[in-house]
Amino acid sequence: MAKIVILGAGIAGQAAVTLLRKKLPRKHEIVMISPNEEWNWVPSNIWVGVGIMGAEQVCFPLAPLYERIGVEFRVGAATAIHPEGDASSSRPFVEYVPAGTGGETRRESFDFLVNATGPKLNFGATPGLGPGEGGHSWSVCTAEHAVEASAAFLEAVERMKRGEEQTFVVGMGHGSCTCEGAAFEYVLNVEHELKRHGVREKGRIVFVTNEPELGDFGVGGLFLRHEGYVTPSHFFAESLFTERGIEWVKGANVMEVGPGRLAWESPDGSEGELTHDFAMLLPPFAGVGLQAYDRNGEDLTDRLFAPSGFQRVDADYGAKAFGEWSPRDWPETYQSPHDPRLFAVGIAFAPPHPVSRPIRTPRGHTYGPTVPRTGMTAAVMGATVAESIADLVRKGPEAPLHRNPFATMAVACVASAGAGFRLGSAATITMYPLVPDYERYEYGRDLESTTGEIGLAGHWLKYLLHYLFLYKARCRPGWSLIPE
Amino acid sequence: MTVVKKPAVPNQPPPLVTQPTRRSLRRRQSVLVQLWRFLMLNLRMVRMIRKAHR
Ligand SMILES: Cc1cc2nc3c(=O)[nH]c(=O)nc-3n(C[C@H](O)[C@H](O)[C@H](O)COP(=O)(O)OP(=O)(O)OC[C@H]3O[C@@H](n4cnc5c(N)ncnc54)[C@H](O)[C@@H]3O)c2cc1C
Fold first, then answer.
1. What is the pLDDT of residues A358-377, one digit of tens each?
2. Are the Cβ atoms of A272 and B8 closer than 8 angstroms?
């Protein structure tokens, strides 16, 4: 009998745990350790953040589901991995702090461990960033954050209805942020909602991003097939913003967020500053701070994890200059090079380097967008690792691992630009491969598969995906037929 | 009141962008045209999913 422990009931963890449970007979034990009692379809937090959906529409409780499908659920946060066990036993185990126990740690032994802990939302990286204590901006990274953001957004709308002018700033709260697509979506929704509330002319909207060009999205930008042309994504994004009267600041390394103001450093070293009445700024991501120890209690953290806190997997982490980066640097199996029983999927794996060219300022700061580990890629990684572990359990340690190279993953991004059955809109961008390969493709990517368009159909698709993925995550009948 | 102390986009020329014609705007919201696009987008998604699950 094997025991598999999954850390993190997010998009990647849920894909892994549900597929493992489907593949392995009940005699094998599957345990989920996660601090959240509810599963959150994060992409729809965008709609919660402008007040058109409630948190209950994007979340559902996990305990009844896990009971039904036969997964042990420990509500708590993992703190340390002991891949060699300890002095008393050589069985690997993970330590976690159960919710509501005031810090007392418990152990869960394992034969295989999947780290799907996602990001630590590192608001502390920029003074004044975030919705917490001492913070002066909002976030939509969690459903709770999105509910708070929507309340502040709707208050600003009320002020506009009373005749006041308001400035909305949306974007990235630090130079090293990732997930630019989410902020891009949110700003388009803010614009759409201001129009719907009849107050658009009273609002100034500014998008502040760390991307060197708008539409970089952390993938170095892309050339896409759009209405018969090969269009650079910055052109596509600038057109959408100009059409909607959204201003933008690119290459911004936000240094400080104060009450009603924010300041940033630009690539040329100059400083910019803007006052605002509402700011939604995403934080940079870091690993959740898991530690690792060998059987003697010696610290293994630096070997298992990168300095960012994300877990090292089968990627090439050698230091290389921008011109030497290759699609082959990216992982395929998501297995730890340190221990074959450990895997990391979704945002939890350490990228070998960015894809976008880093920005270096005259002051010596280096920053730039980090590669996005989107929902689709996170779920595909979770499923790939689940297939590998199921084979290792059923066929033994010689079973070959399933491979799904991160660099050659296909990505579909449906960026909502406003909701509504007749008036909704979304920019649908598809891209293949994720990491550009200039040896194989003239424009770095396959133009047959790299496309972009905007319209009502995109909104219907986004809505359909919302219901499909919640259905799949709930393991309703036929769920496994719905692809990640 | 909102005051911008420094330009939000320092030293940047105005962007060169395409803007949709009225016809494009109508097509983007036309239920008939968009039903067709919806079908095409779903087919494109199927292709992307096939590529993603190799
Ligand atoms: C606002 C927003 C909109 C987005 N829109 C899109 C989109 O339209 N399309 C798209 O593809 N992607 C989108 N993304 C990105 C997508 O949400 C992420 O790529 C995806 O959630 C990553 O999945 P994950 O499982 O790695 O992390 P998560 O989904 O964040 O899950 C991590 C899980 O680990 C848990 N955890 C944390 N610490 C611990 C610990 N110590 N021990 C155990 N568990 C722990 C967390 O509670 C969480 O449940 C969006 C992101 C945001 C923020």
1. 999 998 999 999 999 999 99
2. yes
State the complex-level ipTM.
0.82
Smallest CA–CA separation between A94 and chain B, in Å? 30
Chain B residues touching residue A454 (CB < 8 angstroms): 28
pTM score = 0.94
B45-48 — which CB contacts under 8 Å span 24+ positions? Answer: B45/A412, B45/A430, B45/A461, B47/A449, B48/A410, B48/A411, B48/A412, B48/A430, B48/A432, B48/A449
Question: Chain A residue closest to B12 (CA)?
Answer: A249
Q: Closest Cα to atom 27, ligand 1: which residue?
A: A118
Q: Which of A160, A213, A242 to mutate to test the interface with B (most CBs of B within 10 A)?
A: A242
The residue extents of the domains of chain A are: 3-121+286-395
Between the alpha carbon of residue A10 and those of residues A118, A183, A375, the distances in Å are 7, 20, 9
Q: Is A469 on the interface with B (CB under 8 A)?
A: no
pLDDT per position as a tens digit, A419-438: 889 999 999 999 999 999 99
Which of 3.40.190.10, 3.40.640.10, 3.40.50.170, 3.50.50.60 would CATH assign to domain A3-121+286-395?
A: 3.50.50.60
